[in-house]
Write a structure and sequence with these properties.
Layout (H helix, E strand, L loop, with lengths): L6 E7 L27 H7 L10 E5 L3 H10 L6 E5 L5 H12 L7 E6 L3 E2 L2 H16 L3 E6 L10 E4 L9 E7 L4 H10 L2 E11 H11 L1 H12 L2 E2 L4 E2 L2 H5 L6 H6 L12 E6 L3 E2 L4 H7 L8 E3 L2 E4 L5 E4 L4 E4 L4 E5 L4 E5 L6 H10 L10 E4 L2 E9 L2 E8 L7 E3 L3 E9 L2 E5 L2 E5 L4 E4 L5 E4 L6 E9 L8 E4 L5
Parallel strand pairs: 1-2, 1-4, 2-3, 3-11, 6-12, 14-16, 15-17, 16-18
Antiparallel strand pairs: 4-9, 5-13, 6-9, 7-8, 7-9, 8-12, 10-11, 18-19, 20-21, 21-22, 22-29, 23-30, 24-27, 24-29, 25-26, 25-28
Helix pairs in contact: 3-6, 3-7, 6-7
């Protein structure tokens, strides 16, 4: 690569993944979940890029889950990264535009590898080879797309039409993008051999993207330019200017630019396709996850404490307890601590209807799991009833909760393991295992873990109102 052609991964990680409810929640979405292995889909996305000639990645995420995203990046051991925070969701075109503007702020013109954070690729080595194959084209100013060689007539994906070529693995000219087809058209595409699934992965110079988005959607470019110019970088996060970014129209990379580009010769931007045969899945719904997971001799894909009897072709996930299935055929069963989904595998695209109804009803299960991650650790809502709530709280070594006060509840803390440093009014108390304290209503308090191991406590709240919005913060290390 030439010195000015750094390859910067741009990982688009702002989606909510409602079709994978109840595992995916709006404030803890699918890309942050370990759906395939021990690491999250976001972590898997960055792992598969290891070995490529990369600069520090740019991750574009929603500010709602900034802390858990940052923690997952730290777990990967990355030396550097930039975490751009969207104040509101505006789809992928503004996200990539903000990333391109940020990447060129020092006058360089790197090659960007834009990829969703929530896809699965089985053959990682072949994917890296494909990136290296397309890289010279991107360096020369082309838009490089990655098209999945279809193994079935799929109606749920968009397609890319590529110019016929003798070598199916070679870089080919991109002729057109096609919308999601009906069954007959999908069969025609697959039989013809010139159409590939659109993976949503693109590689191009930052200047090429900015030229394209400026030509096709200048209002997006203008809004994002103001959002990046007005961004605040506090070291951990790059916070895009909220008002400017919110003024951007919402649009996808495909609709805003890619579908228009092949038919716009005046742009003078060549379009190329690298065919991929890498075991790709967009993990868009539970049936797609079933296809991506290894299955047993009966076609069952299971995760967790699952027992099956006379059952075939099922996806069964047990996150919290034992799940047993008898005589189930082609079903999806997903159990979490606070919700269970049961649906025919062929109807899992309809999960978003349930999510919409739950959201309209104001149900908290749409937003958060019972186990809620915080920058200092996490808590699990064990039990609740009229005027009481019980939580298991784990505070990471060296972490500190905010100095806060509640108007409507008192709290009892019992240390299960570790050491707690408690601020209670004017007092500073050190508590060890099996010791406890009481925080009266209206008293300023803070919980800290001064030790080298996680601090675990049981918190019992009592009062007339127990909502998370009954917190008055006076000091906070995390800027909340």
């Amino acid at each position: 690569m030439t010195p000015d052609a750094l390859l910067i991964p741009v990982v688009l990680s702002g989606g909510s993944g409602t079709r994978l409810w109840p595992v995916s929640r709006e404030k803890h979405p699918k890309q942050l979940q370990p759906l395939l292995g021990d690491e999250s889909l976001l972590q898997n996305t960055l792992r598969r890029l290891e070995g490529l000639p990369l600069a520090a990645p740019i991750i574009v995420s929603n500010q709602e889950y900034r802390f858990i995203t940052a923690e997952q990046l730290r777990q990967l051991g990355l030396a550097r990264w930039a975490l751009l925070l969207e104040p509101v969701g505006r789809n992928t075109a503004p996200a990539l535009t903000a990333a391109a503007l940020y990447a060129t702020r020092d006058g360089s013109d790197p090659v960007l590898l834009a990829t969703p954070a929530d896809h699965h690729i089985r053959n990682v080595a072949a994917f890296r080879d494909a990136v290296l194959l397309g890289l010279p084209e991107a360096e020369r100013g082309a838009v490089v797309t990655f098209g999945i060689i279809p193994d079935r007539a799929e109606t749920g994906y968009g397609y890319i039409e590529a110019r016929a070529g003798g070598d199916k693995a070679a870089v080919r000219d991109l002729l057109a993008f096609a919308e999601k087809p009906d069954a007959a058209k999908a069969q025609e595409y697959v039989a013809g051999g010139h159409h590939l699934w659109n993976s949503g992965i693109f590689m191009l110079r930052a200047s090429v993207w900015l030229k394209a988005i400026g030509g096709f959607a200048p209002e997006i470019l203008a809004a994002c330019r103001k959002a990046v110019e007005g961004a605040k970088d506090d070291g951990d996060f790059v916070r895009l200017d909220a008002a400017a970014f919110a003024a951007s129209p919402a649009d996808s990379i495909d609709y805003a630019v890619m579908e228009k580009l092949p038919a716009a010769p005046d742009m003078a931007i060549p379009c190329r396709v690298v065919p991929l045969d890498v075991g790709w899945s967009d993990v868009g719904a539970w049936d797609a996850l079933w296809q991506a997971i290894d299955r047993d001799a009966d076609g069952n894909a299971v995760k967790g404490d699952v027992w099956l009897e006379d059952s075939h072709g099922n996806l069964v996930i047990a996150e919290h307890g034992l799940v047993a299935c008898i005589g189930c055929e082609d079903m999806v069963v997903v159990e979490t601590a606070d919700a269970v989904l049961i649906a025919p595998k062929a109807r899992t695209q309809e999960v978003k209807r349930i999510v919409s109804r739950l959201k309209a009803a104001g149900r908290s299960e749409v937003d958060l799991h019972r186990k809620v991650h915080r920058p200092w650790g996490w808590y699990d809502g064990i039990d609740s009833g009229e005027r009481f709530q019980v939580k298991r709280i784990v505070v990471s070594p060296g972490a500190t909760l905010s100095l806060q006060m509640h108007h409507h509840r008192a709290e009892h803390w019992v240390v299960v393991s570790g050491t707690a440093k408690v601020t209670r009014g004017e007092e500073i108390i050190l508590l060890s295992e099996n010791e406890s304290t009481y925080i009266p209503l209206g008293v300023k308090h803070r919980l800290e873990n001064p030790g080298q191991i996680p601090l675990e406590i049981i918190e019992v709240q009592s009062g007339s109102y127990l909502g998370e919005d009954d917190i008055v913060r006076f000091e906070d290390n995390y800027g909340r």
